Amino acid sequence: MINTKIYKAVYELAEKLMKAAAKDDRASFDALYAELKALCVANEDSEKDHPEQWETLADFTEALDEALLIYQKALDKAVEKASKDHIASIGFSMATLQVETGQPAAAIQSLQQAKASAQKIEDNDLKAEIDDLLNQLTQGQEPHFDQ
Concatenated DSSP letters for the chain? Predict the structure, then answer.
């Protein structure tokens, strides 16, 4: 379970990041992103370290290759904690970026891991998204994402 203070800080930063992005406020976005990254780094390898903070950082990382590395860090931490919800969510997010960066085989692998974990969670929407994207990729269809 994520530390309540960390959860609140990450959630509040995510909300502020979304608002800054919506306003095209680059200075605020960069400052908030730096704050979120500092929070993640400060908690890394401590009892407060949690995959959710890393997943959130990856969600707001604009450089796709860097975002994939951060998602991998989040996934490793989720696997370590046996957090099925996070494994499924992170795996799906990684797969969408892998598709975007021309890595369909890696995306399929991420989705298969996500699907295995998703069988044990309650989020039916996420399960459906994983299944849809996996089916598209394995059937050679051009993936499309619901926005």
Answer: ---HHHHHHHHHHHHHHHHHHHTT-HHHHHHHHHHHHHHHHHHTTSTT--HHHHHHHHHT--SHHHHHHHHHHHHHHHHHHT-HHHHHHHHHHHHHHHHHTT-HHHHHHHHHHHHHHHTTSS-HHHHHHHHHHHHHHHTTPPP----
Mean pLDDT for the chain?
93
pTM of structure: 0.91
pLDDT of residue 86: 95
| Residues 11 and 18 sit within 8 Å (Cβ to Cβ) | no
Phi and psi at 51, nearest 5°, equal -60, -30
Q: Is the per-residue pLDDT at 147 higher than 50?
A: no
Contact 100, 91 (CB under 8 A): no
* CA 55, 58, 59, 60 torsion-angle sign: positive
